[in-house]
């Protein structure tokens, strides 16, 4: 889609949000139009005073002066009310746009977040929506006001003297040529500037999240150089935008206004005796020329901001229109009862070209525990991604209790599948809120879940116990404590199926024993799939599957696999050797 067509579509879509605020918009426009009418009357009053009361002063002149300043006060009041209503419309529309963008973002699948940085998404929901707010609260009102003032002023000028008005209109084509030329040249520059601002946000987000790694590996200078490069490029394009503004906006428009003044004064000088132009008419026309050009200058002055707002709105609408959703469900009214799982000849690829899972088949009966081991990139986590419906698999079938996984409602799956990740994520809040996760749980149920996984032991030692504040990502807690809180959060939902994605990989040996005890209790009576890095943690599994390049190359119990002396045996010997050394 061409820039012009896209801008038009984006603008119409923005205007569609006004439908929900018809009365607010109506009053905003009413006060704006009323202000314009008052502005057009004021020069007429001044013109009448000059022609009739400049040489003598009486009671009528006094009343006219009072009326003149009364109109100014009324104009100020109406303008204030118009700004208030436009601001309310602006904030309401931006709230709705943010709500739509956030709601759609939450429905997007993992594939979208794999290719889109968090900083870029944050930039769209904050910086870009704020730019839209500026358009509605300031720029749009100035544009509409300019249209009203231009139309009313031009009409009034025609009524006063059509010859003088035609002279002024000679400059209008030049104005529109300037605006159109500026719009074409600035669009690309502004779009690039906004894109670079998004890159800055993405770079900042990654740097803040990875600050420990950056400092540990002494990468401060490299990251500083990368940030500086993006920052410098942003400044370069911002300067280009400013150069265009400085050339095409106020200076050029002000020059045209001065030329219009010169033409009018020359016309007055040569023609006032023959056509009988009064001093009041001269004053009124000079005022109207000023009122004709000023809104156009303001419009062009704000045109760069409008361009920025349109680019920003387009970026937000791209997020709203993104349809890389989670895999769809048929939403049949079926329930998970036992939690028996089966993969039947499942194949999966992230990009549709390179297979990650290649004809995977296995079964897990109710209450059994199976484990997957293998080198990095063998497909272990991909099995979890497919089972959790984060990604859609291309071939085969996955069933729970004999029912195709696609037939369940998403809520049914989420309520009955408990996921514990290698890196437990804690939200800003309290210990209680992190276990509860906004579910309808009582304090007793929260404490029971914590006691079940032995998290209550360290929670009771905290100064505020379950009300203890949790900072961002739970940085004030140890890795083991964060993992136990994640266990409590999972067990509080009472899932029938448990997914453990290397849940003990980052835990020290001393803490591991406590975590293993908690895991053993969690697994009782639940169908469990575990991805393991440490083979010592899954020796009691009912079946262990060894993956390599997306295929199952070995399967059996711990003892059976050791007896085969294959891949699993080599992995076990390697880890045992490392432990012994």
TrEMBL record:
Give the PANTHER family listed for this entry. ATP-BINDING CASSETTE SUB-FAMILY B MEMBER 10, MITOCHONDRIAL, ATP-DEPENDENT PERMEASE MDL1, MITOCHONDRIAL
Q: What's the protein's topology in the membrane?
A: Multi-pass membrane protein
Q: Which organism is it from?
A: Streptococcus macacae NCTC 11558
Cellular location of this protein?
A: Cell membrane
User: What Gene3D superfamilies would the database entry show?
Assistant: ABC transporter type 1, transmembrane domain, P-loop containing nucleotide triphosphate hydrolases
Write out the entry's keywords from A to Z: ATP-binding, Membrane, Nucleotide-binding, Transmembrane, Transmembrane helix, Transport
Q: GO terms for CC? A: plasma membrane
Q: Where is the ABC transporter domain?
A: 341-574
Please report the name of this protein according to its UniProt entry. Answer: ABC transporter transmembrane region
TM region(s), chain numbering:
21-50, 62-81, 139-158, 164-182, 258-286
Predominant location category? membrane
């Amino acid at each position: 889609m061409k820039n012009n067509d896209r801008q038009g579509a984006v603008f119409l879509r923005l205007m569609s949000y006004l439908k929900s605020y018809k009365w607010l918009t109506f009053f905003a426009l009413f006060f704006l139009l009323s202000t314009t009418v008052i502005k057009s009357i004021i020069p007429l009053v001044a013109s009448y005073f000059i022609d009739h009361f400049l040489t003598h002063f009486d009671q009528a002149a006094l009343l006219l002066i009072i009326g003149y300043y009364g109109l100014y006060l009324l104009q100020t009041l109406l303008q204030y009310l118009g700004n208030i209503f436009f601001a309310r419309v602006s904030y309401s529309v931006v709230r709705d746009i943010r709500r739509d963008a956030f709601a759609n973002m939450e429905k997007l699948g993992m594939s979208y977040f794999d290719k889109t940085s968090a900083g870029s998404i944050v930039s769209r929901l904050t910086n870009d929506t704020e730019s839209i707010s500026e358009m509605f609260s300031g720029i749009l009102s100035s544009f509409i006001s300019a249209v009203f003032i231009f139309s009313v002023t031009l009409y009034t000028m025609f009524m006063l003297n059509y010859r003088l008005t035609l002279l002024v209109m000679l400059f209008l084509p030049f104005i529109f040529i300037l605006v159109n030329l500026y719009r074409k040249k600035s669009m690309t520059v502004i779009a690039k500037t906004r894109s670079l601002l998004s890159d800055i946000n993405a770079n900042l987000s990654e740097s803040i999240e990875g600050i420990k790694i950056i400092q540990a590996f002494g990468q401060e200078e490299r990251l500083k150089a990368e940030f500086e490069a993006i920052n410098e490029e942003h400044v370069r394009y911002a300067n280009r935008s400013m150069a265009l503004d400085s050339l095409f906006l106020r200076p050029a428009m002000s020059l045209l206004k001065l030329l219009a003044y010169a033409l009018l004064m020359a016309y007055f000088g040569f023609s006032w005796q023959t056509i009988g132009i009064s001093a009041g008419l001269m004053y009124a026309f000079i005022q109207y020329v000023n009122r004709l050009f000023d809104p156009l200058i303001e419009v062009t002055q704000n045109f760069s901001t409008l361009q920025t707002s349109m680019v920003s709105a387009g970026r937000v609408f791209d997020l709203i229109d993104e349809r890389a959703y989670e895999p769809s469900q048929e939403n049949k009214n079926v329930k998970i009862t036992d939690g028996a799982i089966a993969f039947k000849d499942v194949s999966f690829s992230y990009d549709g070209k390179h297979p990650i899972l290649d004809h995977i088949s296995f079964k897990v009966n109710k209450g059994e525990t199976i484990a997957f081991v293998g080198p990095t990139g063998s497909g272990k986590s991909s099995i979890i991604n497919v089972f959790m419906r984060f990604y859609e698999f291309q071939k085969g079938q996955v069933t729970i209790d004999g029912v195709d996984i696609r037939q369940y409602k998403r809520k049914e799956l989420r309520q009955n599948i408990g996921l514990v990740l290698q890196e437990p994520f804690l939200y800003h809040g309290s210990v209680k809120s992190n276990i509860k996760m906004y579910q309808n749980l009582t304090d007793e149920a929260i404490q029971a879940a914590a006691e079940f996984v032995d998290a209550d032991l360290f929670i009771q030692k905290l100064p505020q116990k379950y009300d203890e504040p949790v900072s961002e990502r739970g940085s004030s807690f140890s890795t083991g404590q964060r993992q136990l809180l994640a266990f409590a959060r999972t067990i509080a939902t009472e899932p029938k199926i448990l997914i453990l994605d290397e849940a003990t990989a980052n835990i020290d040996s001393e803490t591991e024993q406590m975590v293993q005890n908690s895991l053993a209790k969690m697994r009782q009576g639940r169908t469990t799939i575990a991805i393991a890095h440490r083979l010592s943690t899954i020796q009691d599994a009912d079946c262990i599957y060894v993956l390599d390049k997306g295929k199952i190359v070995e399967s059996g119990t711990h003892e059976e696999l050791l007896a085969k002396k294959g891949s699993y045996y080599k992995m076990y010997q390697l880890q045992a050797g490392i432990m012994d050394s």
